[in-house]
Amino acid sequence: MGSFDALVSLCKQRGFIFQSSEIYGGIGGFWDYGPLGVELKNNIKQSWWRRVVQMRDDIVGLDAAIIMNAQTWVASGHVEEFTDPLVDCKQCKKRFRADAIAHNTCPECGAVGQFTDVRKFNLMFKTYVGPVEESAALTYLRPETAQGIFVNFQNVLVATRKKLPFGIAQIGKAFRNEITPGDFIFRDREFEQMEIEYFVKPGTDEEWHQHWVEERLRWYIEDLGLRKEKIRARALPKEDLAHYSKGTFEIEYDFPNKGWAEIEGIANRTDYDLKRHSQHSGKELTYFDEETKEHYIPYVIEPSCGVDRIFLALLLDAYHEEEVRGEKRVVLKLKPQLAPIKVAVFPLLRNRPEIVQKAKALAQALRKDFTVWYDDTAAIGRLYRRQDEIGTPFCVTVDVQSLTDNAVTIRDRDTMLQERVPIERVASVIRSKLQL
Ligand code: GAP
Questions:
Q1: How far, in Å, from the CA of 309 to the mean position of ligand 1?
Q2: Under CATH, which architecture does the 341-433 domain have?
Q3: What's the CATH class of domain 4-67+145-316?
Q4: Does the pTM exceed 0.85?
Q5: Closest Cα to atom 5, ligand 1: which residue?
Q6: What is the pLDDT of residues 280-329, one digit of tens each?
Q7: What's the rounded Cα separation, in Å, for the pair 347 and 379?
Q8: What is the whole-number distance in angstroms between the Cα of residue 143 and the centre of ligand 1?
Q9: Where are the domains of the chain?
Q10: Could you give the 3-state DSSP secondary structure of residue 221?
Q11: Using CA positions, which residue lies closest to atom 12 of ligand 1?
C-alpha cells in the first residue's frame, strides 16, 4: 500500500475523516471531520488566523453569510463565467469534464468518439430563499468566500478607518458542484477556504503580488512545517487564469498520488470585483487617498487557500513508516503545535487503582492547558504506538515509583526518549516544549 492509501485508511480508522452520510452509501465530494480531524483543522485555521490577522496591524477579520443576494453572483461574473466544459458519453451516459477526456475515449466504458457537444456547466449550487421556489427567490451557495469581503469593503473601511494597503481576511465554507470530485479530500463539493483580499494602490499591485507569494510560502514552511522541497510557487499561464485575474501564482504541494497540485492560488484581481459591484449596486466603492487627494478603486491581491487540501498535504507530509526493533512504527511527525492531541496520559499498570487514580487526576489537571487523551485500554507499548499514529508529541506515564516520588515519565514521539519529571512540573515542561 502506498503512503496515500495508507493515510486514507488511517484517517477513517483513527477518526480524522469519515465519508459524509456513510451509512446511506455516502455522497460524492462531501466529508465529515471526526474527533481528531476537527482538532487538526481548527489548529490549521488558528495558525493561519494568527499569522495573517492577529500578528499584523494591516489586516482585519470578517465572517460573512454563506448565502448572499443573488445579484452578488451576477456582478462577480460567476453566473456567466464560473463554468466547466462538460460532455456526456452517449454509450454509458456518464458525465465528464471535457478536458479530462484523452483521445476521445470514454474513461468509463471505453467507447470512442461517442461524446455529446461540449456544454458549459455552472458549478454553483442553486437554492431558494423563503417558501416559494420561484426565480425571484433563487440564489446560490457561495463558490468562494471572497465576495462576502468585496461587498463589505465600504463597511469595513468606515468602521476601521484603515489606510491602504490593508486587507480583510475570512475563513469559511465554500461550495462547488464539481463534475468529478475525488482524490479523497483534494477536490470536494463542500470545502473550507481561508482568503485574504489585500487592497493596494493601483501601480503597487505587482510588487505586493510578489510579496504575498513569498509571505505565504513562509507560512507553509515555518508555521506548518511542510518540507521545503515539497512545496513551490508557479506562475499560471495566461490561458489558465480565472475570469477576474490579471496574473496568478499557484502554491503547489508534491502529493504522492498525483504530483504537484494546487493548495493555494494568489491572484491579482485588479479592481475587477469592486468595479463590478459598484456598477451593479450603484454604490460608490472607492478609497479616498489623503496624500494625493484622489478617489480611486483599489487593486486587490488575493491569497486564497483551501483548508481541506492543506490538511491533506500536512498529513501526507507528516506520515512516516519506520522500523523499530524489528517492528513497523507508523508515526505522524506533525509539528507539535498542530497535533490534535498534545499529551496522552497512561497508568503503567491498569489493575492498580492508586496508579489509575493518579493518572486520571494528572490528565484532568493538564486539560486546562492542552488537548489530552487518557488511555488504559492496552499495554503501554501498544498505547505509545496508538499515539504515534495520530501524531501525539508527548506521552506521560504514571508508574509504581510515581506513588512514592511523585514523578512521571514524559516520552517524546520522535526520539522515543523518556525523561522523569516531577508531577507539578509536567505542564510547564510540556508548555516549553511546545514553545507556548
Ligand atoms: N477566491 C479565489 C478562489 O476561490 P480558487 O483557486 O478557485 O480561488 C482557492 O480556490 C483554493 O480553494 C484552492 O487553492 C484550493 O485549495 C481550494 N479549493 C478550490 N476548489 C476546491 C475543491 N473543489 N475542493 C477542495 N478545495 C478546493
A1: 9
A2: 3-Layer(aba) Sandwich (3.40)
A3: alpha beta
A4: yes
A5: 265
A6: 999 999 999 999 999 999 999 999 999 999 999 999 999 999 999 999 99
A7: 9
A8: 9
A9: 4-67+145-316, 341-433
A10: helix
A11: 306
